[in-house]
Give the backbone structure.
Amino acid sequence: MSLIKKIQNWYVNQCDGGWEHEFGITIESLDNPGWKVVIPLERTSCEKKEFNIVDIERSENDWIRCEVRDLKFYGYGGSENLEEIMSIFINYAYIE
């Protein structure tokens, strides 16, 4: 299954008639350039899951920082790291 399909499935599984009205996935571009991904975890199966910070610095344009704080997954990365950020989230969300 493609990464986009997995993200879609995770989102659909959270939708309960209320969650989707309060929460949503945000993907933004950064001006350094890069990406910022914010995914709310409140009222999801990930709400109480532990997450180990991911901090990878390969080069000025190839870097990742992912963390969970305040019941949100935050993923930041270089301009070509969006897929990797999303993959880190999916691996976290689907591992029991």
